[in-house]
Amino acid sequence: IENRELLLKHQQDYFKSALEEGIKSAIKAYVFGDNSDKGRTNAFAELLLKHRIETYALDADITVGGTRYEKGKAFIVPTDQRQYRMVRTMFEKVTKFYDSVFYDASSWTMALGYGIPHEGLTASVKFSRGEKIKFEDIAPKPAPVPKSNYAYVFEWNEYYAPKALYHLLDNGVFAKAAFKPFTAVVNGQNKNFGYGTIVVAVADQNLPADEVYTHIKEASRKSGIDIYNVETGMTSQGVYLGSGNIRTVEKPKVIMLIGNGASPTEAGAIWHLLDTKVEMPITKVDTDQFSRVNLFDYNTLILVSGNYGMLGDKGVEKIKDWVKEGGTLILQRYAVNWAINSKLIDEQLVKENGDKSSSLRLDYVTADDHNGSREIGGSMYMADLDITHPLGFGYARRGLPVYRNHDVFIQPSKSPFNTVVKYTSNPLLSGYVHPSNLNKIRNSVSLEVTGVGRGRAILFVDDPNFRGYWYGTNKLFFNALFFGSHIAAPNFSGQ
User: In a 10 Å sphere around its CB, with 0-12 CB exposed, 13-18 middle and 19+ buried, how is residue 421 labelled?
Assistant: First the structure.
């Protein structure tokens, strides 16, 4: 009993101290929300509630830092609360440190991990705070889907759209994706639909219209997204729904190598991501069994970070022959190094400059600190995303926070069309990085596509699914799975 009372007093003192810090903070609140992605916004709000952070609905539209936050699509997190220190952990970006050696990640800014637009609000910014939210307030509540005689459409910008799409494909419903935007009439009003919008035409199906409608309603319920009905292929603006820019989506048939040579954490993150967020199974095969696999039973092969030298020359040729016939090869981090060094893909690594055999002399005792400070242990950066590329479908903004914890650097593609994600010239958002490494990262490649015969290799220099919480870059990975067969690596004919 005495220990319990002592613990209770420590808790009370802690929360009192945190509240006092929050009251004194120059930041009075944080606003966050993605107007085009309710699922990801609510997932971040749910994370805050799980940590007992008081979160409120935004009661009136506000524009801060060039971003518009809309009522009903954004939230307010005040700093004058007992969980102020957790609030700072979620939102604060730190780039200055007393030490330069880290055993792991140097940044845990969760708002960046979720890719959520957010801004700190000072006392000079006026905002309207609504009711405190509860878990039931952010539970999915998709609108009822009216039955259509022509087609159903849903937006790809929603985080859980891949779950809806996979449900349809897995139940024999044919679906197409819009490779250019369009404006269609929905409920008597024009509505804009962006890159990647999914179109399910009733006449395209081998299933009865009533059965298609049942699967559509179930897809909406499971994913929590709104699905709309349209009654004509004519559009107000953009491409028609019957044009060649509305292309059939192939059901992903995915195999991933695990075991010797492959990163177990990256493989586990992908397995968990697809199982929990998409409800999509994938085949996992040990590298020791690769020689027995018929790759032509699959359309996508994932090689997570690692060294696959045990596959040998025969394994490399087996993968290359399969990709040449139209397969999609997804490579992550050090698997990119292996693929380049083994001549599986025709790309180049960035070579180190300078002569390391110089006359520089340092004290032995400083070796750990010197070398440790030059490790890229885990930090967050701003990159530029080509949102017109199939890998960028579903994103509304070109600015994309990415996570880097490695020293893989590749040369830019010979074609300017094939670099999908590129670091900005001033990229550091949060975390520690040595100045020499920051110079390497500026304007370097984060995601690139290279052609191999009729197929393609997708080079994720950075892990888009880091530890299962990088919601902000998950969609890049989903796009590789669902749109892989349509992704080309165009040549450049010159200026």
Answer: buried
34 close to 116: Cβ distance less than 8 angstroms? yes
In whole angstroms, give the CA distance from residue 379 to residue 402.
9
Q: Which two tokens stand for residue 235?
A: 């559009």
Residue 408's nearest CA partner among 340, 346, 357, 312 is: 340
CA distance 301 to 318: 12
Q: How far apart are CA 168 and CA 216, in angstroms?
A: 7
Look at residue 17 in the predicted model and tell me its pLDDT: 92
Classify strands 300-303 and 62-64 as parallel, antiparallel or unpaired: unpaired
Confidence of residue 414 (pLDDT cuts 50, 70, 90): confident
Arithmetic mean of pLDDT over the chain: 93
According to DSSP, residue 453 is labeled T
Q: Which two tokens stand for residue 45?
A: 């709000």
Alpha helix stretches (DSSP H) within 128-178: 161-170
Question: And the tokens for 353?
Answer: 């400059």
- Location of structure tokens 């400083």: 366
Question: How many residues are given for the chain?
Answer: 495
Q: Which of 134, 111, 141 has the alpha carbon at shortest distance from 50?
A: 134
- Is the pLDDT at 101 greater than 70? The verdict is no
- Cα 68 to Cα 65: distance, rounded to the nearest angstrom: 8
Q: Helices 161-170 & 209-223, crossing angle to 10 degrees? A: 150
